[in-house]
Design goal:
Blueprint: H1 4-18, E1 23-28, H2 39-45, E2 51-57, E3 60-65, E4 85-90, E5 96-100, E6 110-116, E7 121-125, E8 132-137, H3 156-163, H4 170-175, H5 185-195, H6 208-227, E9 268-272, E10 275-279
Antiparallel strand pairs: 1-6, 2-3, 3-4, 4-8, 5-7, 6-7, 9-10
Helix pairs in contact: 1-6, 5-6
The protein binds a DNA duplex (16 and 16 nucleotides) through residues 1-3, 6, 33, 59, 90-95, 109, 126-132, 166-168, 172, 175, 177, 184-186, 230-231, 233-236, 254, 273-276.
Length: 285
Amino acid sequence: MPELPEVETIARGVHQRVRGDQIVQVWFSSHKQPFKTTARIQAGKLPGRAFLAVHRTGKHIVCELGPSGHSAISTDTASPQPASAQWIVHLGMTGRLLVTTPDAPVAPHTHARLTLQSGREVRFVDPRRFGRLELRLLDRATPFAAAGAEPLTIQPDEFAGLFSGRKLAIKAALLNQSLLSGVGNIYADESLFHAGIRPRRPAGRLTKAQLERLRLALQQVLQHAISLGGSSVSDYVDAEGVRGFFQLEHCVYLRTGLPCLRCNTPIRRILVAGRGTHYCPKCQL
DNA sequence: CATTTCACCTGGTGGC
DNA sequence: TGCCACCAGGTGAAAT
């Protein structure tokens, strides 16, 4: 499910519901897969910490956690400060991060349950286990930073610079998280449609004007999707379990064979960078 | 170094 | 109903 608008929606929802709440107990599944920091380490280091804030960076949800333990105020100025931490959640293809009441039925493929002081639970559910849960202790690790640029705020020159000299398809470049962080398959296809650019065009051969159209289309599509709570193609839901509405606005994604909403030409599906890619052969050149 | 391919997982859908 | 091929929001390691 999760590209920038979906991750943003979830991060906002979780933030609203857990800010100030403290983790009192944790449970993790015995699967190895979704745990980047081992489940055992996370289970040992999470209890006692409070959620200070939850935000999005690229496709990652970053939970800012306070220091653990109860030795809040030390009069000994020489003693080390208790370390704050970050709990980083990546949703992969099918991950969900939910804030529930304790009595809510536990969904299949639930891999993490954090019980909070208020009684509520933060739950991570992920059938395919492509997601990742990582704990960063900020006394020994640097704060999380995305590799690529932030699509919502990138400026024209920097955006154009990402693609200059590159021979790969523009769509493959948009999906590369070390260039831009947060763009996935849906929003790559949709923004290329709105910019009138074919997905297979070599990135480095786009004109400055085309690149600027693409930047603006990308930002508009992402903002619009955020305002509608993201795209629910099959099972995406926000932190409350509510579906998004941007799938109703898709012009090309998963519309193979259906008439283009602008010119009625049937939408085509091809493979680019191994991903299903949808475009209008008449509107996109 | 840049780019492409593939493995990692489960589940839903549609054809036969 | 069953079986099978194919498809799905992502990414990082290996191959080219």
